[in-house]
Amino acid sequence: MKKFLEEFKEFINRGNVMxxxxxxxxxxxxxxxxNSVVSDLIMPIVSGLTGGLDFSNMxxxxxxxxxxxxxxxxxxxxxxxxxxIIAFVVxxxxxxxxxxxxxSAKGKHKExxxxxxxxxCLEEVAEGATRCPxxxxxxxxxxxxxxx
Length: 148
Hints:
Blueprint: H1 2-13, H2 15-49, E1 60-64, E2 67-71, H3 73-108, E3 113-114, E4 146-147
Antiparallel strand pairs: 1-2, 3-4
Helix pairs in contact: 2-3
Transmembrane segments: 20-50, 70-94
Function: Channel that opens in response to stretch forces in the membrane lipid bilayer. May participate in the regulation of osmotic pressure changes within the cell.
Family: Belongs to the MscL family.
């Protein structure tokens, strides 16, 4: 039992388990935000465009002997519409975040220099070197780094 608990402790202390736990918590909070955007901002617009049509009351009544049963296909239609809207909103958010990340990366991008190489043996030499440490050839001019 002691070994089992130690293995469990090791499992919990792994970085990826903690990352997953944080992702689940943030995902739950993000879900609340996206649901609010859809139900409070976008669905009223959709309702206005459809003339206030409410799918939730749509059902197919099936008479069964002594009673009735209903297939509430309107709730399914609402769920599909909300899913499509949520998927589209998440797509827009991810697209905006990726664009912001790309713009941020461009601002931080520095010119990368390629190390100078000996013209004879093509091995890397230190910048400013006048002789190759590999083939000992004398370089025509001090080695200079080139921009990629």
